[in-house]
Design goal:
The chain is α/β, with parallel strands linked by helices. It has eleven helices and 13 strands. The strands form four sheets. A seven-stranded parallel sheet has the order 3-2-1-4-5-6-10, sandwiched between helices. Strands 7-9 form a two-stranded parallel sheet. Strands 8-11 form a two-stranded parallel ribbon. Strand 1, helix 2 and strand 2 form a beta-alpha-beta unit. The longest helix has 15 residues. The radius of gyration is 21 Å and the shape is globular. The termini are far apart.
Length: about 375
């Protein structure tokens, strides 16, 4: 790492490298503590860069560990150790860090290997989990002590819709077992914002900006939750500075949000004149659509998916930027992408949306 690089220059360089995205909105107004040595596993995909920028803003020293495959040139100023979670951890040997942030692990064995390799080398293990551990979401106001999903074969490494939550819960247990007094488990809900590789939220500002008649799923009152990746990154750095431990749901906004509010506020934020046609969940199911982006009918196994309680994180200092800012900046980021990237990975194609709307109106 270039030790002559000033903190201000480093922050400027990393901000430019990721397209000028703003830092998280978790306000860190108090003077920074003594610099921490932070190891980030991954760090160059979606949420990791926001952690890097938040840490740099606070004067911490960051080391990355990854395979050198995803965005390898994103942070040339940082020390990057090359290896693989799946058995190639030799680059971590003989080093010391105050904190490790484990971003990309969906398989418990990976966490076990990393935690074992880092025991005695780091003070705190931070694991990024998911509110998916609560599947099936049979209740509302789900708090951190709620039951988590289980699986018949805990050794499986096939990650899919059925296994994801249970495997994340088992991965959490690996971190707790290796660092019983010094672990921090963060459970974010759907992560959105500029740079999202899934396009689950991106679909909405992009589609609404296009205008015309927009298919809106479910009802305007259906609950929705999300977290901007920048706010998640800022909270995690604040949490390690404050030496927080335990488990935190990171969901918002605190005042609550509905699907109607999400679409209306996003429409206003991107200056759209689109009209919304609400299409009920039963009709969508009949036509092969059980979910749309990150909306799912709040019933049955998904009753409480968007009703997870985030009070603990808010009390600990988590803050969220307005949805309007996330929407506008996500669209700005999207418009700056090349043509190949501007193929939405979530939502409806224009043809499929028109087909569903026509069927809903009884046409054809």
């Amino acid at each position: 790492m270039n030790t002559d690089l000033t903190r201000r220059a480093f922050v400027q360089a990393t901000t430019i490298a990721v397209g000028g995205l703003a830092l998280g909105s978790c306000r860190l107004d108090e003077p920074p503590p003594a610099p921490l040595r932070i190891l980030i596993l991954g760090g160059t995909n979606f949420i990791g860069p926001h952690q890097v920028r938040a840490a740099a803003e606070r004067g911490h020293e960051v080391t990355l560990f990854n395979r050198g495959v995803t965005n390898p040139d994103l942070f040339p100023e940082l020390e990057t150790l090359i290896g693989d979670r799946d058995g190639d951890l030799g680059a971590l040997a003989g080093r010391q860090w105050d904190v490790v942030i484990d971003n990309p692990a969906n398989i418990p064995r990976w966490v076990r290997l990393s935690a074992e390799a880092l025991q005695g080398s780091v003070g705190k293990y931070v694991f990024v989990s998911s509110t998916g551990v609560y599947i099936p979401y049979l209740t509302t106001d789900i708090r951190e002590d709620a039951p988590v999903d289980t699986i018949d074969d805990p050794e499986t490494e096939e990650v899919n819709g059925r296994t994801f939550g249970a495997l994340k819960a088992l991965a959490e247990d690996e971190a707790r077992s290796a660092f019983p007094d010094d672990h921090l488990i963060v459970r974010p809900t759907y992560i959105i914002g500029p740079g999202d590789t899934s396009d689950r939220f991106t679909y909405w500002p992009v589609r609404l900006a296009r205008g015309g008649e927009v298919l809106a799923p479910g009802t305007p009152d259906d609950p929705m939750q999300h977290v901007d990746a920048r706010d998640l990154g800022a909270f995690m750095i604040k949490a390690v500075e404050d030496d927080l431990a335990g488990t935190f749901n990171v969901v918002g906004p605190r005042e609550g949000l509905t699907m109607g509010g999400l679409l209306e506020r996003t429409r206003a934020a991107v200056g759209s004149d689109a009209t919304l046609t609400w299409v009920d969940a039963a009709f969508l199911r009949e036509h092969g659509v059980s979910a749309l982006t990150y909306w799912t009918e709040p019933a049955g196994d998904y009753l409480g998916m968007m009703r997870v309680n985030g009070d603990k994180a808010f009390t600990a200092g988590f803050e969220m930027r307005p949805l309007e800012q996330t929407a506008a900046e996500t669209l700005e980021w999207w418009n700056a992408q090349d043509a190949e990237r501007q193929e939405l990975r979530s939502g409806l194609t224009a043809e499929r949306e028109a087909e569903l709307l026509a069927a809903f109106r009884g046409e054809g």
